[in-house]
Amino acid sequence: MPLEELEGRITNGELAKPGQFAYQAGLSLVFGSSGAWCGGTLISDRWILTAAHCTDGADGVTVYLGAIDIKDDKEKGQQRMYTSKSNIVIHADWDPSTLSNDISLIKLPVAVEFNDRIQPAALPKMDGHYSTYEGDMVWASSWGKDSDKATTVSQFLPYIEVPVMKQSTCKTYYLGVVTDKMICISTSGKKSTCNGDSGGPLV
After folding, report:
1. Using one digit for the tens of pLDDT, what is the confidence trace for 1-56?
2. By the 8 A CB rule, do 126 and 88 touch?
3. What residues are labeled active site?
């Protein structure tokens, strides 16, 4: 799978501070002799949540945790772990043609120790029903490209704050693709994510 197919960008974002997004994971994926970059979310001391289209067909992945600068392997608090495809679990009903069930899990080879730069994401509490989150402000973060002209992913972790779009509005833009199991964000403020920020957190 060509790198360009998975890479994307956070556009017009701000740079994250150390520990600001302690649940953020970076994924350097290997596909034979090529590679790709995606985001992920730490959800426990052994598991990363990401997108199935990122991991489908991957031979392995190096997971970056506690990072802001992905080019600095000596950055304070940064940890990297490699795991093989035997530890990648793709949703059984993942359908690339419809993008339904675009979710996968990566099991870390060892339990990570939590600290001020590495923490699991706090999931919303169930109150008997699922919220649509329409109109709520959310954060997206990942190291994707920062412009269409960029040839590589961002070195430093950027993020944006954007509102969740109404499902009915989103469906007019993506007719036949968006289901009630999906959340859309508004990019009217010229802030956006794209496919290489794929798999990254939206909180």
Report:
1. 343 443 334 677 889 999 999 999 999 999 999 999 999 999 999 999 999 999 99
2. no
3. 53, 102, 198
